[in-house]
Structures are given as C-alpha cells and as structure tokens.
Design brief:
27% strand, 239 residues, 10 strands, alpha/beta, four-stranded antiparallel beta sheet
Length: 239
C-alpha cells in the first residue's frame, strides 16, 4: 500500500492578485482520516480544489496517489464531495446513483451498498429535491463512494447534519480508512477535530499546525482544539 496518498510541497495559489494559499507543505497518509480545519475563508476549499486538479496553482507541486494532481488516471480513483450537492434534483436517490454508476461502469449491486453506507435506505425512492440539505449532501457522498476511491476529499460534509448523523458519518469515514482509503475532511467546527487521526490547521492561507489531536494538545498545553488553534495563532503573531 502506498504510504502517502497526498504529497504537497511549497504550494502557492494566487487569484485576482490575492494570495489565497502560501507555501503549504504536508502529506496525507493512506488508511487515515486527516482533518483540515480552520475558519471560513482561510483557504480550505481552494486547497481541496488544488488536490483534485481543478484549481490552477501558482507555485509548488501537488502529487496525488503517485501522480500529479489532475492527471487523467486519477479520475476514477478520487471521490470529491463539494459543499454544494452535485446530484440531480429531479431524480430519486437511487436513480442518481444508477446514473453515475453507469458512467463509472459500476455494477448495480454497488448502488444499494453505497445508499446503505450513508444511511439513506429509507429515502432511496425519494426525489432529491424533497430531501433536506444534509440528506442531499449524503447523496453526493454516496455517489463519490461508487467507484470505491482510494482518496476521498470531503468539503464540509457534516454541515446541516444533526448530532446523531454526524457521529454516524464519522464512523463511516473511519470504516473507509480502516479499509485502506485516505480521507481528507474539511470543517470549521473545531470539536470535530478529535474524530480525526491527524490534523491540518489553516489560517489565512497558511498551515499553522500539522499533528495528531493528542500531539497538538500536548505541544500547546491546552485542553481542546479550539484553544490549541488560538495558541498557535498567538505564537504566529508573536514570531
């Protein structure tokens, strides 16, 4: 198994003359859930777009599953779930998954399996437009799982979910990681950090921490990730 699913070195992204990402270097391991945390507007989505090859980069390099990000060979090996649901509102949950399964050349049996994975079995025959925002996001996740990707890039996947479903979804993420997939999960909710194997903390386009949750708390002498984040911010400002 490949040790690292993602290797980023000195990544810079500039848009409209504004530096969005600056000098990012990090790795994401296979078989782990890596959390990408930081306040809204810090560059998380831009970074994820760079990883899946749909964001023009200004400098540095991004390697995914041993290939440059955006390589054609990666298309069926990466699952990418954006903040906005990327499914058809006028189709049912099952019809959406069957449509994308045909495109991917995936057997119909995989459709039911993915619907079950995201706990939408009771809604399989409902039209997507009739679902809640959180349910629609889970349909997008089910679509992303169809091809059994080796890397899942998930942008704020738990937004709009109730606490019970959030816990269930994080359990799903860890089951996928235990099966060998790499997951990069973004969030601006600091209390989700404890559910990750490793954390990348971002602020204003830069990386201010790359550590395990326990390691981050120990190094900052704090009791929770929010205070650890603030501690790193204060360290950066004092430098």
């Amino acid at each position: 198994m490949m040790k690292n699913a993602i290797t980023v070195q000195n990544l810079d992204v500039t848009r409209g003359g504004h530096e969005v990402l600056r000098g990012l270097s990090f790795e994401v391991a296979a078989g782990q859930v890596t959390g990408l945390l930081g306040p809204s507007g810090c560059g998380k989505t831009t970074l994820m777009r760079a990883l899946v090859g749909v964001q023009r980069i200004t400098g540095g390099s991004v390697e995914v599953l041993g290939q440059p990000a955006g390589s054609a060979s990666l298309r069926d090996r990466i699952g990418y779930v954006t903040q906005q649901p990327s499914v058809y509102d006028d189709l049912t949950v099952t019809e959406n998954l069957r449509f994308f399964a045909r495109i991917l050349g995936v057997a119909d049996a995989r459709v039911a399996e993915c619907i079950g994975t995201v706990a939408l079995g009771d809604h399989r025959d409902r039209v997507v437009s009739q679902l809640s925002g959180g349910q629609r996001s889970r349909v997008s996740l089910a679509v992303a799982l169809l091809g059994e990707p080796r890397l899942l890039v998930l942008d704020e996947p738990t937004v709009g979910l109730d606490p019970v479903l959030r816990v269930e979804l994080w359990d799903t993420f860890h089951r996928l990681a235990d099966a060998g997939a790499a997951l990069l999960v973004s969030s601006h909710v600091m209390d989700e950090a404890s559910r990750c194997d490793r954390l990348l903390l971002m602020r204003e386009g830069g990386l201010i921490a790359d550590d395990t949750p326990a390691g981050l708390l120990e190094s900052t002498g704090t009791k929770d990730i929010e205070h650890a984040f603030l501690s790193r911010v204060h360290e950066e400002e004092a430098a």
